[in-house]
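User: I'm designing a mutation panel for CDP-diacylglycerol--serine O-phosphatidyltransferase and want to avoid disrupting the core. Could you give me a predicted structure to guide residue selection? Please restate the sequence first so the numbering is unambiguous.

Assistant: Good idea. Sequence first, for numbering, then the predicted structure tokens:
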Amino acid sequence: MNGEKIDMSESMRKGIYILPNLFTTGSLFAGFYGMVATMNGDFKTAALWILVSSIFDGLDGKVARLTGTSSKFGVEYDSLADVVSFCVAPALLTYKWALQPFGRLGWLAAFLFVACGALRLARFNVQVNTVESKRFVGLPTPAAASMVSAMVLLFYHFGWPSSYKKLAILVLIYLLAFLMVSNFRYYSFKDPELIKRQPFAFLVLAVLLLVVIAAEPVVMLFLIFICYTFSGIVGFLMTWPRRRRLEKAIHNKHTKEEP
């Protein structure tokens, strides 16, 4: 602990990198403004600002890696900003938008989302050097917050009655809280192969996807986030037989080696 404090102090004396931390600050501002909009009863605007926050959050890490400006300060600042933008802001939004009529059960559900999000971030920080960079362990907090925002925007888009949203958001909050602290693997989109040359068909598919998103942005955003949310569960189920065979083979090997 003392060693980490000394390293951080030395890094602070040398200065901090402005550009990536500006993007992190933008993410923090968007998340905070989302809470302000929630308190003013403008839930649609709050959902949009949480989505804006997730865009800034995705850019700060990429900017830091591309410019070689990654730092311990940036990592810690990013985690603190994520707690506000992707834990507290969406939890407050869900509580004011749908969970408040449940009373104590409502705010406890919102708190569970905050707690699981914070735990997810803490686990990520301690496992960042030991886990495969192409996969996240547990649903990332920006994805969970974006899923909440997409749900809110979908209800406004179709004008569904408020009685539906209470049960839907209650189930969603518990599901997202569980997925954030689960061991399901989620694609991180940090694969270097993504920025290398790809077949021409990939460009055509990307253009078609943009056209579809532009035609129905709210519906497509919801579908994208719901697919990503369940991708960890689907991946776990698809690889379960292979993992079981591998575990059985390892067990049989150890059994044969025993005298």
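For picking mutation sites, this is relevant: The mean pLDDT is 82. The first helix runs from residue 2 to 14.
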